[in-house]
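Need a sequence for this fold. Nothing fancy.
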C-alpha cells in the first residue's frame, strides 16, 4: 500500500513561490496517476494539477503559475507554485490512483490521499 505524505506548505506573501512535495512510502508510485487538490475553508476540494505517463494537466486557475513534476529518484510528485495569490490560500492535498488513460480531475477518481499541507498567502 502506498502512503502519501505532503510537505512544503507555509505562510508567504503574495507574489512569492513555494514548492510542495508529496513523498510516497511503501512502494514506488511512478506508474500511478498523481494529483494535487486544494480546499479552502467553506469550499469544495478542487483539482489543481495532475501527472501521469500521458503528461500533465493543470487547472485554469493556476495555469502558467503552477507546475507539477515527478522526481523519480526521490519517488516524489512536486508542485512548484509561483506568483502566489491570496486566493491560493488552502490546504493542499496529494492524491494518487492506479495508472489511467488521461488525468481525471474528480475527487472520487483518487483512492490514495495524503494528510494535507497548509498554504497561506497574505496580501
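Here you go.
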Amino acid at each position: 500500500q502506498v502512503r502519501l505524505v505532503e510537505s512544503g506548505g507555509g505562510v508567504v506573501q503574495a507574489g512569492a513561490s513555494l514548492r510542495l512535495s508529496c513523498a510516497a512510502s511503501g512502494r514506488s508510485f511512478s506508474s500511478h496517476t498523481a494529483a494535487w487538490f486544494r480546499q479552502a475553508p467553506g469550499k469544495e476540494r478542487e483539482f489543481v494539477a495532475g501527472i501521469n505517463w500521458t503528461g500533465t494537466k493543470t487547472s485554469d486557475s493556476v495555469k502558467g503559475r503552477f507546475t507539477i513534476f515527478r522526481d523519480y529518484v526521490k519517488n516524489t510528485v512536486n508542485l512548484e507554485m509561483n506568483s502566489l495569490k491570496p486566493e491560493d490560500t488552502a490546504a493542499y492535498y496529494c492524491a494518487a490512483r492506479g495508472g489511467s488513460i488521461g488525468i481525471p480531475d474528480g475527487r472520487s477518481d483518487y483512492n490514495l490521499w495524503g494528510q494535507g499541507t497548509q498554504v497561506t498567502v497574505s496580501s
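For context: The first strand starts at residue 3 and ends at 7.
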